[in-house]
Amino acid sequence: MNDKIVLSTWPTPLERAPRLAAALGLGGADLWIKRDDLIGLGGGGNKARKLEWTVGAALAAGADTLVTTGAAQSNHARLTAAAGARLGLDVVLVFPGTRDSAVNGSGNLVLDSLFGARIFWAGDSDPSAMADVTDEVCRQLRDDGARPFAIPFGGSSPLGARGYVDGGEELLSQLPDVEHVVVALGSGGTMAGLIGALGERRVLGVHCGAVAEPAVTVAGLAGALTGRDIAPDALRIRADQVGPGYGVLHEPVLEAMRTAALTEGLVLDPVYSGRAMAGLISAVRDGDIRPGQRSVLLHTGGLPGLFGHTETVHRAVDGLRAYEPEGASPSTEE
Ligand SMILES: *Cc1c(COP(=O)(O)O)cnc(C)c1O
Questions:
Q1: Is there a single domain that holds both residue 284 and residue 210?
Q2: Is this prediction's pTM over 0.90?
Q3: What is the CATH number of the domain that holds 134?
Q4: Are 179 and 125 contained in the same domain?
């Protein structure tokens, strides 16, 4: 079955990052950024590649409503809303919490509403129960005469992960001798798909704390995708960047975000791509990635989510820096 649809213009750019490479102790030609943050749908990010497959399946099934779930700041939910808008499909997003807890919804929530998605607030149901709540919402939609299609959390089914087999093959055509691809590991489909294209040894996943057993999750998806038996132990996964937990910004990630911003004008997000960068930095420090090896950071996007965490970032960088002129002040003082 190949019902894939096109949701952006491909390929995404692959750029060198020489000043960032130097800051890490790598050579100028060693480090590349795969700019999937620049995917041309709904603010960009990795989830769009998976949606080309999952929304393709929804259309093939005759659906008129996309239903998905995630945290309220989910980039996947935002891009599902954007895909629905582009294709003329209704979208219902199932989030934990209440409308009040997000009354001044910022970041991705602003875009969800701009794209016309409706939100079902699941209250304080257990996060592990969200799949059941989503099933229930689909049942209600069917009772209301709609034809819903549920896309799993993060778009990470074996079908959705095919989007990153595509992404990995695209990268290989741009940089055939790539040795390391560093990627944030959330729901796992992105890393699983990359393994489908690049094999286990070239893909380094940086666990972000979104799933309980990252190696088992990714091995399961990659196994289902490739039809090979993939052992969790064979995967390269770093768990040293989870810190206090999913969605909490901690010092190494902030430092990675600052370094990328100050050397390349490159924006990373506090939940995923900032962690991937922090994992890359620690992989260089402990010799897992060495100078002279071709390394790619997959920039998975997440910029809108950053604006759902602005207080954290402000607190962490001590707010705005003032410019205080040293010479004669041009002010209106007497
Ligand atoms: C979802 C997400 C990831 C992780 O991708 P998974 O396929 O869920 O592992 C990485 N970066 C960003 C910005 C994301 O939104």
A1: yes
A2: yes
A3: 3.40.50.1100
A4: no
Residue nearest to atom 2 of ligand 1 (CA): 186
SS (H, E, C) the chain: CCCCCCCCCCCCCEEECHHHHHHHCCCCCCEEEEEHHHCCCCCCCCHHHHHHHHHHHHHHCCCCEEEEECCCCCHHHHHHHHHHHHHCCEEEEEECECCHHHCCCCCHHHHHHHCCCEEEECECCCHHHHHHHHHHHHHHHHHCCCCEEEECHHHCCHHHHHHHHHHHHHHHHHCCCCCEEEEEECCCHHHHHHHHHHCCCCEEEEECCCCCCHHHHHHHHHHHHHCCCCCHHHCEEECCCCCCCCCCCCHHHHHHHHHHHHHHCCCCCCCCHHHHHHHHHHHHHCCCCCCCCCEEEEECCCHHHHCCCHHHHHHHCCCCCCCCCCCCCCCCCC
Taking CA atoms only, the protein residue closest to ligand 1 atom 4 is 186
157 lines ligand 1 (CB under 6 A): no
Known catalytic membership, residue 329? no
Number of domains in the chain: 2
Per-residue pLDDT of the chain in tens (334 residues, 90 and over written 9): 679 999 999 999 999 999 999 999 999 999 999 999 999 999 999 999 999 999 999 999 999 999 999 999 999 999 999 999 999 999 999 999 998 877 667 899 999 999 999 999 999 877 779 999 999 999 999 999 999 999 999 999 999 999 999 999 999 999 999 999 999 999 999 999 999 999 999 999 999 999 999 999 999 999 999 999 999 999 999 999 998 887 778 889 999 999 999 999 999 998 999 999 999 999 999 999 999 999 999 999 999 988 887 777 777 676 677 898 988 666 655 5
For a pocket test of ligand 1, which of 41, 47, 51, 78 has the largest count of ligand atoms closer than 8 A to its C-beta?
47
Question: Which atom of ligand 1 is closest in space to residue 74's alpha carbon?
Answer: 15
| Residue 188 CB less than 6 A away from ligand 1 | yes
